[in-house]
Amino acid sequence: MSVFAAVMTGKGTGAISTIEVFGDSAEAVIKRIFKPTGKKTAILKPGKILVGVINDASQTIDQVTIGCEGRNNFTINCHGNPLIVEMIMRLLSKEGAKLVTTKEFLAKTLRAEKRSNTIGIEAKLAQIRAKTIEGAKIIANQIDGGLSKKTTEWLQNFDAISLDGIKKEAEWILEVSQTARLIIGGCTVVIAGPPNSGKSTLLNCLAGREKAIVTEIQGTTRDWVSAECELGPVAMKLIDTAGLGQKLTAGAKDTIGRAAQQKSVQMLEGADLILFVIDNSQAAKQVDEKLIGRITNKKVLTILNKCDLPAKFDTRKLPAILGDTVEISAKFVTGIESLLKKIQEVLEVAGFDSKQPVCITKRQENLLKQLKKAKSKSDGASIITELLNGRLGV
Ligand SMILES: Nc1nc2c(ncn2[C@@H]2O[C@H](COP(=O)(O)OP(=O)(O)OP(=O)(O)O)[C@@H](O)[C@H]2O)c(=O)[nH]1
Ligand SMILES: [Mg+2]
Q1: Is the CB of 129 under 6 A from ligand 1?
Q2: pLDDT tens figures, 3-37
Q3: C or N: which end of the chain has fewer Cβ atoms within 10 Å?
């Protein structure tokens, strides 16, 4: 005899909170604490919604609705005051329910009802993480389609497909999952470049508001400034950094300036995309050689800013890694459409097929990496079985 209860709605105050109760004695627990309006006892038939009150002995805690989701599964929809939620959870615990997290609860109910394989359960648990609608679609498509369907197909047709074929597909899935990760979780775009090139002006322009201070004085930005914006299917966290001097950190004369530049270099490490802003109206070199070593393996787009002024910068001097350029004037908001298009191209997020198989958890990623290196077909089969039905790990 076991009963589990979990709060399914987010923390904090809301209009309504939902608590789910599941287990073979869930009905008995609900009957003990719930009194339906106008009736002596509750008849909890699957599919029914009942109105009434939750009582702790003679004390009423809240007026609620009870949703009868299944024979052993009920939802208590109470008012969204965290204190009410806490009182109901305490009462459930007193009545013998084990209080668990949302993740544990979903894992238990979905497993018990055999409604999903492990990939499907992981997708259901991950749905809350999506930053954009496109991201939510990618995750939802993995429940019955996507990776769930692909692994089922591999197992069903195992004798007919070669191990090499499966390995190639696993490699492809891992590759497209990088893009899926950006669409689901959002991406960090770091705006970097020499002082006074217009980085903060660009941040403000992309954010649509005056987030960062802009002046004609070099070294205006010290602490990094961030702003969120959505671009097509992807949510971007834009980070404006302090200007990088000719000799990177060693070149900064003052202590604060040096610390600010060190922070800028650190920020580059966490970037999914670097927008390297150059002042196109200046002939100076503007790119520190030391920087190049730090941004290999990174996606970089070079922005030639201040294109409203006569061009003096020689783009032939740009190192290959900074070669892909876009001309804009952040101050006069020209070239921004092309820049946004180019960002989507570089991130490879435009036109992403949300139905394709992708991995959305570390467990799935590790198993696909193992599959890519599988030495025999039997190894491959056990990895795929683990992927589809192994222990949960989000
Ligand atoms: N003409 C012109 N001026 C610009 C443009 N973008 C920025 N500026 C000017 O250039 C100066 C520096 O702009 P910021 O945005 O503060 O430059 P920054 O790269 O953030 O500078 P630091 O924080 O000091 O590294 C300001 O006077 C801006 O008005 C542009 O597209 N055209
Ligand atoms: Mg600035």
Answers
A1: no
A2: 999 998 878 888 899 999 999 999 999 999 999 99
A3: N
Domain hosting 38: range is: 3-104
Q: Look at residues 73, 104, 135 and tell me which one is the last residue of a structural domain.
A: 104
- The answer to whether 153 and 173 have CB atoms below 8 angstroms apart is no
> 201 CB under 6 A from ligand 1?
yes
**For the domain that residue 255 is a member of, what is the CATH number?**
3.40.50.300
For the cut 80, the answer to whether the pLDDT of residue 248 exceeds it is no
Residues 337 and 202 in one domain: yes
- Give tens-digit pLDDT for 338-355: 999 999 999 999 899 999
Ligand 1 pocket mutation, candidates 190, 205, 211, 214, criterion most atoms within 8 A of CB: 214
Which pTM was predicted?
Answer: 0.80
335 residue type, one letter: G
Query: Of residues 205 and 265, which shows the higher confidence score?
Result: 205
What's 41's domain CATH number? Answer: 3.30.1360.120
Ranges of beta strands (E only) in the chain are 3-7, 16-23, 34-36, 49-56, 59-70, 73-79, 98-99, 187-192, 225-231, 234-240, 273-279, 300-305, 325-327
Determine which residue's CA is closest to atom 7 belonging to ligand 1.
Answer: 198
What letter represents residue 289's amino acid? E
Count of the separate structural domains present in the chain? 3
Report whether residue 261 contacts ligand 1, using a CB cutoff of 6 Å: no
